[in-house]
Amino acid sequence: MSWIDDIHEEVHELDAQGLRRRLRIVDLLGGMRASVENKDCVLFCTNNYLGLADHPHVLERSQKALFRYGAGAQASRLVSGHLPIHQQLEEKTAIFKGSEACLAFPTGYMANLAVVSALVDEKDVILCDRFNHASLIDACRMTKAKFMVYDHLSLDDLKKQLEKTGKYRRRLVVTDGLFSMDGDLVPLLKLMELAHEYDALVMVDDAHGTGVLGPTGQGIIHHFPLKHFPAVVVGTYSKAMGSMGGFVCGSQLFIEYLLNKARTFIYTTGLPPAVCGASLGALEVMEQETSRVDKLWDNSKKIRVGLKALGYDIPRGAGPILPVMVGENEEALRMSKRLLEEGILIVAIRPPTVPKSTARLRLSVSAAHTDEDITKLLDAFKKL
Ligand SMILES: *Cc1c(COP(=O)(O)O)cnc(C)c1O
Fold it and tell me: Which domains does the chain have, with CATH numbers?
């Protein structure tokens, strides 16, 4: 038996444990609707929080950029792939986030890899929340820095760990803002005060906060009365902005440092013009239609209240990410299947994305959900 057979065997083992992942075609029908396995359904599992992925202005902006500049950037940004539209996008993003400067990457994943490996090396230590997004965990593992994990959102545990870091040159605290699978929020003000006491820098991944938090969706920084901008804020164009790409916000010199050092920036092709156009369009809509953020929170509240009234176990938190805790993998899969029969798409999130025995239905809300969609969702949960 060659060892590829062992690999094949592992797929069968995943299947047996209810952990096999499969691709399924989701045919988007506009708004929050889609067709899945010939069944029309409402999507409650996208990150399209503001409904911008098919907003007419976003599409028009994208199309214009496509016809002006062509399909691709044709080279790394540092070679000849830095187009005017990249410059515009980064300037506009920096203004939106309230930072000095910004650098865009092909994905949020790559932005996280870039930042962590640029900031620390073998003389340094990283303190990482246990439930941070996989891209942050991978970023921490990629460096030679000492990697320490603290309990989810526990400032007490973080403090304990910080006390052990005296021998390191630099301390970096890395955290999600709005946690992607649990929907809870880092107490950023207190975390930054604590980090400051130990001369540690804070890096926040605002992937789910951008477009969601703060009065007009600028993100986590505008949600808290912070006196200083954190050392680095990472965000994505791929969630609320409905497009693709990641970005890093920080000081002008840090951004220049990154573009000199970050391998995931230097050795890859610049974002395609049509994608930059879409993100610029999304930023413009976010400036003009700030009521979308209010609508998102109203919808989230309605759904939280509705599901709690039906007796579902929803952890604390208030935003648009709502984990309906189930526990066992098979049960989560069964519920997801039943929901689809009722015309609701919510996928089962299982280990290793979340800890063992905490399989869940991760429900995410959008400003584009209508009252009818919400009624349909609650009716479906009632029938489960
Ligand atoms: C989605 C996500 C990313 C990765 O962003 P992509 O643009 O999809 O690569 C990074 N961090 C968090 C917290 C995320 O949820």
Answer: 21-49+290-383 (3.90.1150.10), 56-288 (3.40.640.10)
